[in-house]
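Consider this record:
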Amino acid sequence: MEYIKAFIVGGLICVVGQIILDNTKLTPAHILVSFLTAGVILGGIGLYEPLVKFGGAGATVPIIGFGNALAQGAIEGAKTKGIIGAFTGGLQATAGGVAAAILFGYIMAVIFNPKTKN
């Protein structure tokens, strides 16, 4: 059942993005930044946590989940280290995921022959 809930939640997030992409003049970059910002705001005010508890990876893997992780890290950092922690907490909370993305992206670029889209 966990997988079904994750699929539904993650799928709905992607459907919202696709609807926005199809029906507006926003570029994928605008939508990416909007989802990230929405994740930060929803995480900061505590509205994203129930979705994470219900959807699991379906809510934490998309970019909106990254925004939530940034917000939660900043909140925890502010609680423990004050104003400096508010700036560094988000980076500490997401450093592992960012490092993994860079590492695996580099490995794939070495293994495969990357090409630009024309």
